[in-house]
Design goal:
The chain is mostly helical and about 350 residues long. The protein has one domain (about 65-350). It has helices at about 1-35, 55-65, 75-90, 120-140, 145-175, 180-185, 205-220, 230-235, 245-270, 285-310, 320-350, and strands at about 100-105, 105-110. Helix 2 (about 55-65) packs across helix 9 (about 245-270) and helix 4 (about 120-140) runs antiparallel to helix 5. It is globular and about 65 Å long.
């Protein structure tokens, strides 16, 4: 029992470190990708190719003067960014990063916890994260911050509905809300063809659901073209206008953690997670197969993170009325239609 607790604590620390490390270096990747797309060089002073830039930015934020506005609610002002970061990190607890490792006959599970409502857990925690934004915007006692917080809350509520409906169709097919079970089901043969074993990905059965999910993921992460809550041209900096030092850093890093977890969710739900096509044909040792699966999973995550960044520097942001119209009048009806089509498809294939 003690060994199991030690294993879980070790895994929590590793996932925590990976999440924060990915968030930190996503800031560098963001600047490098934007520089590439705009025919610039990007950060290249701190270390080789700018590899130490995230560390320099982190140190800068830690040592900057911390300013709390005189009319702000001090307790809520501190609580807002803390809550936003905590909820961002909590979502990674149910993601299966790979098959269990065989350590001398003892199986080391590469998932912090496998609960039978894993998908529901992620949605619940993500929905709490909006309170971090709302509290921060309210506590700042700044009209721009409050307007950004109101935009964020209404945007997240609107797009969580469409996202939840898109997942319902997937749950109908899988018959489970456990992420581990959903990923395991995708290890089978695509359309019953033995040659395509390990490629039974849900993207082939739920393309419309995935399209809805990824659009809503952009809105949930406040990424362009849905970055209305921190729209610099209108709201200075949005809900974190009055923040400085590491409190600002928590808001910024939490967004990148959310982007990392969203990418992991998309890879798990629709692209097979750690499943690799044709891997079983190579007859590799079990632990090597596990490591290849983990590597493939992170490759999928990195691709989606790049896609987030590519869209940001390609498409301009929506107007706020366009944002609401897309969420309520387009995505929600499409998600309901997808549920109906999935239901009819399941009836016809029985």
């Amino acid at each position: 029992m003690e060994i199991m607790w030690i294993e879980k604590i070790l895994l929590v620390v590793i996932v925590f470190a990976i999440s924060l490390g990915t968030a930190a270096y996503s800031t560098l990747a963001e600047r490098k990708v934007s520089a590439f797309l705009q025919d610039r060089i990007g950060p290249n002073r701190a270390g080789i190719f700018g590899i130490l830039q995230p560390i320099a930015d982190g140190v800068k934020l830690f040592f900057k003067e911390e300013i709390i506005p005189a009319n702000a609610d001090r307790f809520l002002f501190v609580l807002g960014p803390s809550l936003f970061m905590i909820t961002a990190l909590m979502t990674s607890a149910v993601i299966p990063w790979g098959k269990p490792l065989d350590l001398g006959g003892r199986m080391f599970d590469l998932q912090v916890t496998d609960i039978n409502i894993g998908v529901l857990y992620v949605f619940a925690v993500v929905s709490i994260g909006v309170y971090g934004i709302m509290i921060g915007g309210w506590a700042s006692n700044n009209k721009y911050s409050l307007m950004g917080a109101l935009r964020a809350s209404s945007q997240m509520i609107s797009y969580e509905l469409a996202m939840g409906l898109s997942i319902i169709a997937l749950i109908m097919m899988s018959g489970s809300m456990s992420l581990k079970e959903i990923v395991a089901q995708q290890s089978g043969e695509l359309y019953g063809i033995s040659f395509l074993k390990g490629m039974n990905w849900n993207i082939f059965y739920q393309p419309l659901g995935f399209l809805i999910f990824i659009v809503c993921a952009f809105a949930e992460c406040n990424r362009t073209p849905f970055d209305l809550p921190e729209c610099e041209a209108e709201l200075v900096g949005g809900y974190h206008t009055e923040y400085s030092s590491m409190k600002l850093g928590l808001y910024l890093f939490a967004e990148y953690v959310n982007m990392f977890v969203s990418s992991a969710m998309m890879a798990s739900l629709y692209f097979g997670g750690y499943n690799v096509p044709f891997l079983e044909m190579l007859n590799l040792p079990y632990n090597v197969e596990v490591f290849v699966g983990v590597l493939a999973f992170f490759t999928k995550i990195i691709f989606f993170i790049f896609f987030f960044m590519w869209i940001r520097w390609t498409i301009p942001r929506f107007r706020y009325d366009q944002l609401m119209k897309l969420g309520w009048k387009v995505l929600i009806p499409l998600a309901i239609l997808n549920i109906l089509l999935t239901g009819f498809g399941m009836i016809l294939t029985k």
